[in-house]
Amino acid sequence: MELIKSPSQIRISHKRKDWKKVILPWLLLSPTLLLLLLVVSGPLIGTLLLSMTNWDGIRSPDFIGIDNFIELIQDKTFYAALMNNLKWTIFFLTIPVVMGLSAAMWVSRIGRGQMVYRTLLFLPYIVSTVVTAKIWLGIYNPYFGINTLFEKLGMNALAKFWLGDIKLALFSVALADTWHFWGFLVVIFLVALQQLDRSLEEAATVDGANKVRVFWHIILPQLRPTIVLVYMLLMIWSFAAFDYVFVMTQGGPGNATELIATYMYKLAIYSQDPGYASAIALTMGIFSLIVIMGFGVVKKKGWDV
Amino acid sequence: MSRRFDWRHIPLIIGLFFAIGPLLLLFNNGFKPRDEFMSNPLGFPSRLAYGNLIEAWNKGEYGQAFINSFIVGAACIIIVCICAGLAAYALSKLEFKGSKLIMGMLLFTLAIPTGLFLVPLFFIWKHLNLMDTLHGIILIYSAIFLPFNIFLLRSFFVGIPNELLDSARVDGCNELQVISKMIFPLAQPAFLTVSLLIGLWTWNEFFFANAFLQSNELKTVSTRYLVFTGRFSNDWTMISAAGIITIFPIIILYVFLQRRFIEGLTEGSLKG
Predict the structure, then answer these.
(1) Which CATH class is domain A67-300?
(2) Over the stretch B149-165, which tens digit does the pLDDT of each residue have?
(3) Could you tell me if B168 and B242 lie in one domain?
(4) In a domain, B25, yes or no
(5) Helix or strand run (H / E) with residue A239
(6) Are residues B28 and B65 in the same domain?
């Protein structure tokens, strides 16, 4: 049974409720939502539509269905870029993670100087990519870079054509990018390590477990949520990787360092083929969507992988 | 415990050398007289050639680039602090239908590659005459910085006790006064972090700036550096000197506020 109220009473109480629970929140969110609609969501739908068109950027676009995607499958450059992105991802899921976790372990166990290491290892992460990519271009330069040092030390075997060699170029660029952001991983792992339950570790040591076993069976399981999160971030970043290749090699030599993002950027900005570029962008989006959804599943399962 | 040297310092110092070495190399090359560069590429300079920096500043027309970056940075800070502050308040202190959906959407925008909306944005901006304008790039930056900073502010707002806000309401504050008189002053440290991060990003960003700003006199510091290195592609003394100019302001800020930078950048990513 409802209590009988006069219509005006109902209206007033509704109004108050509406204001606090409905109108105000959306009012506060509206500037954000408008900006995101204009810059992100709207264009995102545009990418979906454009990917099914053949467009020169000037005349009205022709609808061509999935032709762009058929072209994509046969596109050798795209295939090379896709493979490079896979290599890039494998590289980033292993080397920087091992480096970051080891450094974080060591920093967390030393008494003094933790802040100094943390500050200096993180420093490259805040420095402009356009500059750091140029620094690494200098380091890899065969005439005045690191090779001159190797030759002086008699280690001629190490003096490679870092960016000129098709087999090495991608690795060299990935190393420069690793340099840029592994300090970020150090800090993330350091935060996680500082929240560990040290009593478990002490108990295991008392029971005679050695350091390796303590690490594998006590420390690593407790870091699982952080590691899963880092892996998700790294996968998303690896598939969207752009900066270092764009500044250092522009995808060359040949297609040796071409990535999906750099290929798309060239097609979109320089070659005036927006429809095809959109189709390529969409493949990146689908990949990150899969990663995010996979991450959601893992999170629901309580981080058990 | 004995006070002996911890072996862990050895790999860590190697790590430090890896992290800092390339930056030291930049400073070394930038301050080295030009004629010493080829004869002694990795060695220390015989004297400090400050003139390199002045030459690079003038040749690169860095004065205008600094002003552009300051304008873009300041405008983005104001827009993001207001928009993200209001949104974060709604998402942390008001219960309403759809808040989960909004959080999910923000997370999604944070995670998708920026390339995914680049192409249509490019044509929308042309159509709206926002191409090659500073306010055009300010709008783009503000939008892409919003999700991260909403999460950052939200996690801070959650920690502000509701009783405090309720007592303000009892004293006769309406919701907007609660935001302006309670939330904004209380959350000042969080807003400072947000401002710093936005300053950092606008200074370093070049993916959008390179595509959306074509006129030389509008370029921001990072894109100006790209143009500069294209023009002086063989003069590594100039490239290094311009590099020092480009990164110096950020390094100075980092020296004084490193804790805020580190915590803001890592916590924001974790919370998101």
Answers:
(1) mainly alpha
(2) 999 999 999 999 999 88
(3) yes
(4) yes
(5) helix A224-240
(6) no
Complex ipTM, two decimals?
Answer: 0.90
For residue B235, what are the CA distances in angstroms to A41, B47, B52, B62, B229?
Answer: 43, 19, 11, 17, 8
Contact state of B236 with A285 under an 8 Å Cβ cutoff: no
Residues B142 and B267 in one domain: yes
CB A232 within 8 A of CB A303: no
Task: Tell me what pLDDT residue A2 has.
Answer: 45
Instruction: Give how far B90 is from chain A: nearest CA, Å.
Output: 5
Res. A10 pLDDT band, cuts 50 70 90? low
Contact A248, A173 (CB under 8 A): yes
Q: Are residues B19 and B117 in the same domain?
A: no
Q: Tell me the whole-structure pTM to 2 decimals.
A: 0.90
Pick from A147, A302, A186, A41: which is nearest to B265 by CA? Answer: A186
Flag whether pLDDT at B35 surpasses 90: no
**Same-domain status, B90 and B192:** yes
In a domain, B206, yes or no: yes
Interface contact A269-B211, CB threshold 8 A = yes
- Alpha-carbon distance B183 to B173, whole Å? 12
Closest by Cβ to B19, choosing from A31, A121, A128: A121
Domains of chain A by residue range: 67-300
Round the average pLDDT of chain A to a whole number and report it.
87
Where residue B174 sits, what CATH number does that domain have? 1.10.3720.10
For residues B43 and B78, state if they share a domain: no
If contacts are CB pairs under 8 Å, which of residues 36-65 in chain B contact chain A? Answer: 37-38, 41-42
C-beta of residue B147 within 8 angstroms of C-beta of residue B107? yes
Confidence band of A9 (pLDDT split at 50, 70, 90) = low
> Is residue B3 in some structural domain?
no
Q: Are strands A53-54 and A62-63 parallel, antiparallel or unpaired?
A: antiparallel
B144 touches chain A (CB under 8 A): yes
**pLDDT of the residue at A260:** 94
Give the pLDDT band of residue B26 (cuts 50, 70, 90): very high
Q: Residue B120 burial by CB count (10 A; 0-12/13-18/19+): exposed, middle or buried?
A: buried
Indicate whether B145 pLDDT > 90: yes
Tens of pLDDT, residues A185-198: 999 999 999 888 88
Contact B96 A21 (CB under 8 A): yes
Per-residue pLDDT tens digits for A168-220: 999 999 999 999 999 999 999 999 998 888 888 888 888 888 888 888 888 88
Among B240, B270, B254, CA closest to B52: B240
Residue B183 to chain A, least CA–CA distance (Å): 14
Asked if residue B201 and residue B112 are part of one domain, the reply reads yes
Are A22 and B222 an interchain contact pair (Cβ–Cβ within 8 Å)? no
Please tell me whether residues B136 and B33 are part of one structural domain: no
In a domain, B4, yes or no: no
Provide the domain count of chain B: 2
Q: How confident is the model at residue A143 (pLDDT cuts 50, 70, 90)?
A: confident
Interface residue of B26, B116, B253 to substitute, partner A, most A CBs within 10 Å: B116
Nearest to A128 among B113, B203, B254 (CB): B203
Domain containing residue B216: 57-271
